[in-house]
């Protein structure tokens, strides 16, 4: 093992000794049902606190890649001395067979490279096994693994799928270049020469936890494409949850919460759209995540502008209240974001604008969420409040460019992200 590998192992070996080997999170095959033992897969025997550092919510399925190695590039929000990885077959219909799985640090400042930092490549195990079968409708969490994981760094999580395991659970819109080796098990390849194809989706990997000395917990951002990052620059990590993580990293160590992006482009609050509805996937994408202290909800625009459209503001607010009830039952504080303008978009009508404004009035009026992030007020054009400011509009009059994403994140009061649910 290279010297850096020996140092990383020594830092965290004691912390992860005696950890639980494997947690199987029971979910409904299509909609992500109630999790088992959230927050505690692989709980360490020595002092330390597991925190969610990265998330990608399952958004649907893609064709399987039999015989391939899939190298997913994921970015941490906070760092630690050990790591564990969540692998999902939640939306699959057949058992998922993994022949090998690895994690490593990506070469710095090279988001489009499959190369790993020398000495950081580690084999992931599940219950002590390098090969595993994940039942349809389930997630698994890897054994804790000693590795020095920096904050704001890219990790390479590579999975080898030796055969056809049926529809692959994936996150379609990663806004990140990921890599494919189509000719066998190259999971442990450091140089990356075998990765000759790319994809802009994340396959099977839906979470990364890290072990930290402090326990400020994590923040989950539940949303649609506005949270998923549509409109922002690919391979640049400029979604508003990325910027929120940057702001939190500037705080004292005891307040540096991890940020988990549970956005799914096309997602709806009340109905299935792109993937399960926010209500249906809530347990899997929020409550099962590690160390969650705060939830930020930005959902509803696709319900208003979709087909069929939601014409009753009270129905959306009732759905918000139900999410808050479920979060409060787990001691999670909930921040609600107002729905942002989409005037000029093809789905906009005067009637839908009235629904949007009515929902926002109810959110601002209090009594729904523990706190409010008034995203609408931040990004709307003062002269035409049904539209986005031109400086934040990538051109489709719905999503946000990098400047708009930054404005959203910078408007969040960080004091609203701490403390218990009311």
TrEMBL record:
Entry-linked Pfam families: Lipase_GDSL_2
InterPro entries xref list: GDSL_Rv0518-like (IPR053140), SGNH_hydro (IPR013830), SGNH_hydro_sf (IPR036514), TAT_signal (IPR006311)
Transmembrane segments: none
Biased composition (Low complexity): 30-48
Domain SGNH hydrolase-type esterase: 221-407
Location of the region described as Disordered in the Swiss-Prot/TrEMBL record: 30-51
GO molecular function per UniProt: hydrolase activity
Entries under CDD domains matching the protein: XynE_like (cd01830)
Keywords, in A-Z order: Hydrolase, Signal
Superkingdom as given in the UniProt entry: Bacteria
Gene3D superfamilies given in the database record: SGNH hydrolase (3.40.50.1110)
Signal peptide range in chain numbering: 1-32
PANTHER family noted in UniProt: GDSL-LIKE LIPASE/ACYLHYDROLASE, PUTATIVE (AFU_ORTHOLOGUE AFUA_2G00820)-RELATED, GDSL-LIKE LIPASE_ACYLHYDROLASE, PUTATIVE (AFU_ORTHOLOGUE AFUA_2G00820)-RELATED
Name listed for the protein in its UniProt record: SGNH/GDSL hydrolase family protein
Source organism (scientific name): Streptomyces ortus
């Amino acid at each position: 093992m290279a010297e850096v590998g020996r140092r990383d192992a020594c830092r965290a070996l004691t912390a992860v000794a005696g950890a639980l080997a494997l947690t199987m999170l029971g979910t409904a095959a299509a909609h992500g049902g109630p999790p088992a033992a959230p927050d505690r897969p692989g709980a360490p025997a020595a002092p330390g606190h597991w925190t969610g550092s990265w998330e990608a919510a399952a958004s649907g399925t893609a064709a399987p890649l039999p015989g391939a190695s899939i190298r997913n590039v994921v970015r941490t929000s906070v760092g630690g001395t050990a790591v564990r990885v969540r692998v999902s077959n939640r939306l699959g219909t057949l058992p998922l067979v993994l022949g090998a799985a690895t994690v490593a640090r990506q070469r710095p400042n090279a988001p489009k490279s499959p190369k790993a930092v020398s000495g950081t490549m580690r084999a992931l195990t599940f219950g002590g096994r390098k090969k595993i079968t994940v039942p349809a409708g389930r997630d698994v969490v890897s054994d804790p693994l000693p590795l020095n994981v920096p904050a704001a760094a890219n990790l390479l999580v590579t999975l080898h799928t030796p055969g056809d395991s049926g529809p692959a659970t994936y996150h379609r819109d990663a806004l990140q270049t990921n890599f494919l080796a189509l000719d066998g098990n190259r999971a442990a390849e450091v140089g990356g020469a075998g990765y000759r194809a790319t994809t802009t989706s994340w396959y099977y990997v839906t979470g990364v936890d890290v072990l930290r000395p402090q326990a400020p917990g994590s923040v989950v951002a539940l949303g649609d494409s506005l949270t998923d990052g549509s409109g922002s620059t690919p391979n640049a990590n400029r979604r508003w949850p990325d910027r929120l993580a940057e702001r939190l990293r500037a705080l004292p160590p005891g307040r540096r919460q991890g940020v988990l992006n549970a956005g799914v482009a096309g997602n709806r609050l009340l109905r299935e759209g792109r993937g399960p509805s926010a209500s249906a996937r809530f347990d899997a994408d929020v409550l099962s995540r590690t160390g969650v202290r705060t939830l930020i909800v930005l959902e509803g625009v696709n319900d208003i502008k979709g087909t069929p459209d939601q014409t009753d503001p009270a129905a959306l607010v009732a759905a918000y209240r139900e999410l808050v009830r479920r979060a409060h039952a787990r001691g999670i504080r909930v921040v609600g974001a107002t729905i942002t303008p989409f005037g000029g978009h093809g789905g906009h009508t005067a009637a839908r604008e009235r629904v949007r404004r009515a929902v926002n009035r109810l959110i601002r009026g209090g009594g729904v969420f523990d706190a409010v992030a008034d995203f609408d007020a931040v990004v709307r054009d003062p002269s035409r409040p049904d539209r986005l400011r031109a400086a934040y509009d990538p051109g489709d009059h719905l999503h946000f460019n990098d400047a708009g994403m930054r404005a959203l994140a910078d408007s969040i009061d960080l004091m609203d992200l701490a403390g218990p649910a009311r």
